[in-house]
Design a protein that fits this description.
By secondary structure, this protein is an all-alpha fold. The chain folds into 2 domains: 78 residues, no CATH class; 80 residues, no CATH class. 69% of the residues lie in helices and 3% in strands. A two-stranded antiparallel ribbon has the order 1-2. The chain is flat.
Length: 159
């Protein structure tokens, strides 16, 4: 299995920060000047706008941390498996596809629960607690998107 060592990460981190900033700026400009239809609540531009601001903050924090004069890499213990990176990207794609077909509340409940099951250490696995947290996350998303800030989302099979 190929792994990114810290020495390799040291040089890629600056590029990731610049890429995050670039994507955030392009996204913010698209939301601002693109053809976004007005909708109820915050409109359908609210969620991408928040996501792009978070991406902008993440890119800035990566860049500032890397460019800081006192920045010294930690020990060689940090390794990011390529399989984990690919899995995270696939998980994100699966979430957006699931939202489109089964709805936001069900998607959040299922995918948060599955992620917690997959990432929990086997000796500390507590399925009851995972189920409660996943159901609470789904309920919060349902309330947020239907009651607090009704944003137009895809017309799914389930709520």
């Amino acid at each position: 299995m190929r792994r990114f060592s810290l020495a390799a990460w040291r040089y890629r981190e600056l590029g990731f920060g610049v890429l995050a900033l670039l994507l955030a700026v392009i996204g913010l400009l698209h939301v601002r000047y693109g053809n976004w239809r007005p909708g109820p609540g915050g409109g359908n531009w609210l969620v991408p706008m928040v996501a792009y601001w978070v991406l902008l903050a993440a890119g800035l924090s990566i860049l500032l941390g890397r460019l800081r004069a006192a920045w010294q890499p930690d020990t060689e213990r940090l390794h990011v498996p390529l399989v984990a990176v690919a899995g995270g990207l696939l998980w994100g794609v699966a979430f957006f596809l699931a939202v489109r077909h089964i709805g936001i509340a069900v998607s959040v409940t299922v995918l948060v629960g599955a992620a917690m099951l997959a990432l929990s250490p086997r000796d500390a696995l507590r399925p009851g607690l995972i189920a409660m947290v996943a159901l609470a996350a789904g309920a919060v998303f349902w309330l947020l998107f239907t009651r607090v800030a009704p944003i137009l989302v895809a017309n799914p099979i389930l709520f």
